[in-house]
Amino acid sequence: MGGGCHTLVLTLAMIGCECGAFAPSLMAQSPAGGADGLKKVPAAEKEDLGPVPAKVDVKPVARDEEIRERLQSVLDATGWFTDPRVEVREGVVFLIGRAETDDLKRWGGDLARNTQDVVAVANRMEVAEPSVWDFSPAWGGVLVLWRDLIRSLPFFLFGLLILMLSAGAGVLATRGMRNFLRRKVGANLLRNVIARGIGVLVFLFGIYIILRVSGLTQLALTVVGGTGLIGLAVGIAFRDITENFLASIFLSMQRPFETGDLVEITGVTGYVQQLNVRTTILMTLDGNLVQLPNASVYKNNLRNFTTNANRREDFVIGIGYDDSINEAQEIARRVLESHPAVLNDPEPSVLADSLGTSTVNLRIYFWLNGREHSWLKVRSSLIRLVKLAYQKHGISMPDEAREVVFPKGIPITMVNKRPKTEENESVERLPSQSPQDEFDEASTKAEGGLTSEAGVIKEQARHVRPLNDGENLLKGKSGTTSGEKDAKDLDTNGPDSAK
């Protein structure tokens, strides 16, 4: 019985040493307190210590030799270890040898722990350090990558096929939707936006199928759900561009002007040349091209002088206080009625506008056809003719009176009259023109006729850098822009046809 106790105490001491639960060295006491006294057990070095078993059998069924033989045969059979050796003492397994990797060393320890009646495992196997010139791991990684590539080749071919089919389906959907909306939506830009949006959705559906087949379901949902977020982020980042693009859609739908119309936008007056996805291009009366952002065109006031051919103009002329207002109005009215560019319906009118410092101001209103005649030239012609008629009928047109104060008086100096000499007579002087000598024609050579400047502006537009007609959103179904027919008719009939 005493020997059995001694063996049990020594076994527990070794178990505590292997598990690290006790101090680095344990003292084993002999039962009789012999001369040996306390015996020191060395600590394990480079051992993979496993957890303490929950239960330790006092009378194990399997003997140490049987455990050793079984583990030794398994390790030799695997061929994964170099010089493997197993020692078993009182149910404690000691594994000795070399393993190629840490995983193999750990596998050997787990194998010993799972063996019947093993109390503890001391894994003293050494892991072989790989050589610096050992390229086997890299080669193994390349082989794994190659196997993965070969394994994923069917998915790649299938995804490529789905991608091609979805792209073709997107193109067909775009064309089909564009043809379907051709008779339902008049705006060319809006048709293109809707058609391309449908095509993009079809293409994204193909991408979703590819990701689902590849097993990337979460990524597919992220792509589908993130499309709207990406669109929102792009819209915020490119707010001005997006605003101009949306304004171009609304302008192409509402069509407040056509190509060739004379408009005034934000103080700029000119003939419309093109409406694209970003700007509206005008040719001013000075022959300059001006690009206006579509957002400004859509949000600001717009005056279209071509939509209604008839337009009203006016100017102010002053007569003296001693002259008869009725007579002056009648004289101006007769001039307006006889003018070839002034319309009789609506009829012109001459109204007393205000009382000035030295004149009674009359405001003369008249209507003209803006497509055929230039309001600048007609206005110049009427001012000239009314002034000539007033001079012929003795209606004075004094200038504004000015009061000049001389606090120290006006010095007067008498100068002898110079005698007339041949030198003075040789100086030619232009005689003052009398009212009878002035022209009473509707248009003079200086005014250059009364026709509209549309033909001149179009001719000047041909000399500038050509615009891309494919970007013009004002084109109709026939491919020609509105307003071009009027310009062609003007070129065919000639500038003199409007006189």
What would you say this structure looks like, in words?
With about 500 residues, this protein is of the alpha+beta class. Among the domains are: about 1-125, 2-Layer Sandwich (Histidine-containing Protein, Chain: A); about 135-235, no CATH class; about 245-305 and about 455-499, SH3 type barrels (Roll), CATH 2.30.30.60. Helices cover about 45% and strands about 15% of the residues. The chain has helices at about 1-20, 65-80, 100-115, 135-180, 190-215, 215-235, 240-255, 295-300, 325-340, 375-390, 420-425, 455-460, 485-495; strands at about 25-30, 40, 50, 80-90, 90-100, 120-125, 125, 260-265, 270-275, 280-285, 290-295, 300-305, 310-320, 350-355, 360-370. Strands 3, 4, 5, 6 and 7 form a five-stranded mixed sheet that branches. A five-stranded antiparallel sheet has the order 11-10-9-8-12. Strands 13-15-14 form a three-stranded antiparallel sheet, covered by helices on one side. Helix 3 links the parallel strand 5 and strand 6. The longest helix is centred in the first third of the chain and has 46 residues, at about 135-180. The radius of gyration is 53 Å and the shape is rod-shaped. The termini are far apart. Mean pLDDT is about 75; it is low at about 1-45, about 420-430 and about 480-499.
